[in-house]
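Morning F.,

Quick status update on the modeling queue. The single chain you submitted on Monday has been processed. Sequence for confirmation:
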Amino acid sequence: MACHNCGGCGAARPEPLNEIENQLLDQLAQNAFLPLCRLLLRSPESKELSFVMSAPVYLPDAAASKETVRAYGAALLSLQKRRYITLDYNVPLSGFDYDAWRRSEYYQGFAFSMEAPGVEPFLEPGSAALTLQGQEALDGTE
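Structure tokens below.
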């Protein structure tokens, strides 16, 4: 049986979740998946040649500030590290309006700041999903 870090064996207890991490887990408990993306710079000649500039990116609203987007990204990475969620850029959410994210202030600022000959900014859609371990954390069994 896996250790749940109860403190009896000397293993450190996991740090408590912060407000944004709890919010994201609650949203995943209600929706099963959350939209996310990563921002890339791609070569116009070779779409396979790309560089990740920011990932994961989750926009709680179209006017989210850089600080807010970074806080959500850090929370998503923390939840992934704890194995509470998976992040997948091969599985975008069907029916989600990623074009609204392309029109967001955050993406427009990224695209403007990355304008350079020989590269193009690109938003690669993806999704986050709750794992069994994440569900157990929500249920308070971990």
